[in-house]
């Protein structure tokens, strides 16, 4: 049997097999903890935010404005922050910015007297969320280019885990010690994350990547598939920020839920949400096709969003959350991957920056419009609005599937 001859790797291939940052296990561990603290800080008050404001006597319309301001700020800030990060080749300062603004956000919610303080707090959390792109770029540099998928899979799990930790703490602390306990915990988590962020490994010269480019932006925007995916993502985030990250907690409290019981509603949504992210790309898409899975996700998320309005007790509400959590967890990761798939590596950062800025429209428009619908017609009609957004997305999915004549975008 002839002896196998090993062909030497080219310089480019060798570079692709080496991480941009030689990170040890300890470096990975530090980054993991900082990421968990970041998402915990950002989400530690999300389940109680609408009940907290309702307890202060604010109308649903005003609550919708406060909830929507989170997405509005990201529409304005995400892309410029990405440009500045790429220009400096530095990600670590933006990690720290995320921690600082997350802690300040929680502090502003504790200031009594005016609805402007919660508005300022939620807007500051939008700045915090806009720093996320720096986390993903820096973490990817800890892996070889060939392991990029593994890196993004890991950080997706960390995202859901950090959100879940924060949201579980939210209900427990509020139930035991009052609303401000959750905000106080957010300050502590943010401060701890900021202190630990100093230990995050990044070279003095920073990490270069194919940057977000205004020059490429026009070409990126003209790509039909990106426009399709971005439109679907706006609608998906509208539904998400009307439901679990918006008015579902208020529905739960209207059915008699304590702050502690909100934790169970959160877990009912978030655990299936995370599981769906893990199984969709691996099993559902290869078996049923991209368009079919996206369409099914919108169909079920629309049905289970409307079902929230008809939930007579906490048990059935929790069931709608479990089913809705899984449905909404199906399409979001698919859309994220599709957003950058058509582009060469030099344009992917620009495509992702555009995509993230655009889907923030849904974070703003969903709760903003639902708040005014609730004020005019009653809170359950906001969930009907969420179902309508999902129905529009389903119709667009079916239309684009038929026009492409393919199972994938």
Automatic annotation (TrEMBL):
Taxonomic lineage from the root: Bacteria, Bacillati, Bacillota, Bacilli, Bacillales
Domain Major facilitator superfamily (MFS) profile residue range list: 27-405
PROSITE patterns (UniProt xref): MFS
Residue spans crossing the bilayer: 28-49, 61-81, 93-117, 123-143, 155-173, 179-200, 232-250, 262-284, 291-310, 316-340, 352-369, 381-400
Subcellular locations according to the entry: Cell membrane
Keyword entries, A-Z: Cell membrane, Membrane, Transmembrane, Transmembrane helix, Transport
Domain of life: Bacteria
UniProt topology in membrane: Multi-pass membrane protein
Pfam families: MFS_1 (PF07690)
Alphabetical list of PANTHER family matching this protein: CHLORAMPHENICOL EFFLUX PUMP RV0191 (PTHR43124:SF3), PURINE EFFLUX PUMP PBUE (PTHR43124)
Listed name of the protein: MFS transporter
